[in-house]
UniProtKB/TrEMBL annotation:
It is found in: Cytoplasm. Its main location: cytoplasm. Keywords: Cytoplasm, Ribonucleoprotein, RNA-binding, Signal recognition particle. Pfam families: SRP9-21. Residues 4-73 form the SRP9 domain. It comes from the Eukaryota. Belongs to the SRP9 family. One of its GO terms (cellular component) is signal recognition particle, endoplasmic reticulum targeting. Component of the signal recognition particle (SRP) complex, a ribonucleoprotein complex that mediates the cotranslational targeting of secretory and membrane proteins to the endoplasmic reticulum (ER). SRP9 together with SRP14 and the Alu portion of the SRP RNA, constitutes the elongation arrest domain of SRP. The complex of SRP9 and SRP14 is required for SRP RNA binding. GO terms for molecular function: 7S RNA binding. The keyword Cytoplasm applies. This is Signal recognition particle 9 kDa protein. SUPFAM superfamilies: Signal recognition particle alu RNA binding heterodimer, SRP9/14 (SSF54762). The lineage of its organism: Eukaryota, Metazoa, Ecdysozoa, Arthropoda, Crustacea.
Length: 78
């Protein structure tokens, strides 16, 4: 599994993956202390998207993505 290098590409692909099949998509967020990296992984068992960052200001971008996905989850638009 490879990592997507660009945050913008990862964000678009993750949202597209979620909107394609919201009931199958799941994500994990893992902090690896040994190398100081935060790893995000989105998957629907067919497609796996990964993003790794070691920069603290990327946490704000991650928070914005999670907020956006939560809005999709609670909206009545299907």
């Amino acid at each position: 599994m490879t990592y997507i290098k660009s945050w913008v590409d990862f964000e678009r692909a993750a949202e597209k993956l979620y909107l394609a099949n919201p009931m199958k998509v799941r994500y994990t967020m893992k902090y690896r202390h040994s190398d100081g990296a935060l790893v995000l992984k989105f998957t629907d068992d067919a497609v796996c998207l990964q993003y790794k960052t070691e920069v603290q200001h990327d946490l704000k971008k991650i928070d914005r993505l999670m907020t956006n996905l939560m809005r999709h989850m609670v909206s009545s638009d299907k």
